């Protein structure tokens, strides 16, 4: 189910905001060139809130122990291993929509 | 008895000759040096980086005053020789000294050429030759405004870029159609103009100066075509003329310079000359390499050695502007029988042209990638047959001779022993290898000291390091500076220097100018750059919140479960019923799960929900409390002990001192966290000697200690000095914090920093030099003016970063 969650300008450039959902927090990221990505707000390491990290390029550095997570795939970059679950997003004009995850479909990732 | 040698001119050629003499036979002469400039001998070449701010004068001194003393040389600095009597063999100086000589050396250099136009003597017209000129330019640049540089040669462009770096609006006015026309061809000249224009300089070519305008002070410049330009400063950099007046009056033979033979002898017995003041075989020189060769020849002659004599030099040039790589050598006018091999890469802005005649390199112009300059120059000087290299020569040494060799040290390994590594000082690879093995050298600085390689323009230091590593093998650790992070090749120190030198104002600008390899950096360099800019531009920089770690972005410590902790300031560890009541009230109101006394003498409220932070702060603010910055690379706490208010041993009021320190320094951002403590007596109950800055009160005042750490590697402070009054303590603390703020690398605590730079360095700035300390303190206070604003208050009011504390949306 696609759902409108806000506008691109609601999120600071190179920053993130959180959508609180029944299935947990979802972090919505905005890159320097205004691309939008969404991941479950849990670091595969020890559950750090990725929405609180520093966004750079198409990655975010977790605020707790600085693992770098790829925003496109949710994969941990570099020497460490793991994956955060991605959530499909679409942007039309300024409006961001999220395909809210199907409760049954969890578990493929993360 | 020793023979008396008098040297006129305390410059680069004269003193090099003296060094060469000492090296051969230190006991032969009783040496006296007269220098018109009132200072020690320095590396004139490096005035350009001094102007641009990349170096300071202390960095470019070649021989300190102690060196003269150690070598028994009498130096009259600031006393020019005014007359030479070659019959009585004496010289007379401005201050009236008359001294006899057995041998006399003229090394008077040259004077800047002043174009004879109206207005040339106005206030605000300067040349670029010595440190006084640089100081004049820097003083003018402080006032801002417009500068015009007449002359688009090496010197003029280095002046122009330097003035631009100091914030002036700069125009280069050049007579010819291309810049540096004697060194560059048109294509390279064009690239250079676009590069300079890209940096915001204006360049007018084919522009002939008619007059400098103004009544007493410069106001502008008029060109022959009638154009008028406004200016507050005019720099004449149109050329030099050998300084021969003294020799002429003494009846020594003069051409364009002082005439010398291959032994550097003038027409008069026992009078010699070296440097820019001479004319040899019809040529005069304006670069250091030939002067150093002259110095060697003369030293050999004066110490009784037999040598072939000086036969003239082939020179090459490099422009010393950071980020602009230009090299040229030889003849590249082309013409009949000359072949051009040209390589261009527009995207990278690279242009290379090798001029070949009869299978020999006749000249080379390199723009944008000049690392093979030395190699082409060597091929040219050797007259090497390059027919075998013909197809690949333009790609440089690593690729020439078939097959790409990606390893740069392979190229150095392949060099012959007589290949020149240091162009300025004429040092060959073999000399360096011999010096390393004979004297067991292991560092670049040692090689510099023994061979002079890379001691002048430093351009070859990379090559010298490679020779070191090839010679020593695994025993040598390349001192290549560690880059800040994977996004750049520059080190922390270089980035800091360049930010200031080039007056960069934002993170994107730094990344663009210093060619970051990632679009927007990473979580390691961004916070560092944000700090460096904030420190460099205390009054104008707009903090980049997205480049701060979460703790500093939301002014609270993130916890493992995603909640936050809140630590309000308790000045000097003091609190009151009102504060404690307010804390108790917020704990109840927001159901804060834990309160703890910290190791920093205050209270920590653990487990606060992020959304509650602004409201918690509002309540704490209402009771007069502000952020304790327990989360920041910033001033943390100032711990105190009971002091003489209560304690039977207390000698001073430690509590009051601690509060005063905290009130002066809170809010300051630092490279890493910064902690202080004040103990009332040497029993030291506040643990001041493991703090970044510790104060231990004694009967006579306050003993100050720096560079302590109680963390991972416990380090006891170093004793700095003892001062008398509370005001002194504040001044030293502010100055110390400021020098740490300005010099340390991001995330380097004072303990490792003090160990790296040495306590002497800190003492030299704080204790030995009242002016430096006061200036540091003043800069600290300027920065505090902008920083002492409670970050909680603004967020509590909801005017700042409201988005941080509310979810974007809540869905079922
Ligand atoms: C709260 C406190 C512990 C306590 O309950 O006493 C504390 C808590 C933390 N300290 Fe500390 N330190 C606290 C006093 C100290 C002290 C004692 C002192 O200041 O007198 C030290 C040793 C003294 C020193 O710094 O020289 C100390 C040495 C460290 C270090 C090691 C620093 C070092 O240079 O080696 C770290 C790690 C770091 O900074 O990288 C650290 C880091 C931390 C962090 C910030 C870890 C982190 O990055 O999240 C802890 C945050 C806990 C939280 O979630 O709030 N903490 N920490 C103390 C807060 C003091 C305050 O009021 O601001
Ligand atoms: C800004 C700048 C950048 C440069 N960059 C480069 C570069 O990149 N590469 C390069 O190879 N060269 C460069 N040069 C040129 C180089 O600095 C000179 O070639 C070199 O300094 C000349 O040495 P010298 O000893 O002949 O003259 P100087 O170094 O000028 O020394 C002469 C000294 O004699 C003193 N003197 C003169 N008359 C008297 C007197 N009557 N009594 C006592 N003292 C007297 C003068 O005050 C002066 O200190 C640069 C020059 C400048 C100004
Ligand atoms: S010592 Fe400091 S960093 Fe370690 S667990 Fe305790 S509070 Fe955290
Ligand atoms: S929880 Fe993200 S890096 Fe440890």
Automatic annotation (TrEMBL), chain A:
Protein name as it appears in the record: Nitrite reductase
Keywords assigned: 2Fe-2S, Iron, Iron-sulfur, Metal-binding, Nitrate assimilation, Oxidoreductase
Annotated source species: Magnetovibrio blakemorei
Cross-referenced Pfam families: Rieske
Rieske domain residues: 2-98
Lineage top rank: taxon: Bacteria
GO BP: any one term: nitrate assimilation
PROSITE patterns recorded: RIESKE
Keyword Oxidoreductase (UniProt): yes
Any GO MF annotation of the entry: nitrite reductase [NAD(P)H] activity
InterPro entries for this protein: Rieske-like_NirD (IPR012748), Rieske_2Fe-2S (IPR017941), Rieske_2Fe-2S_sf (IPR036922)
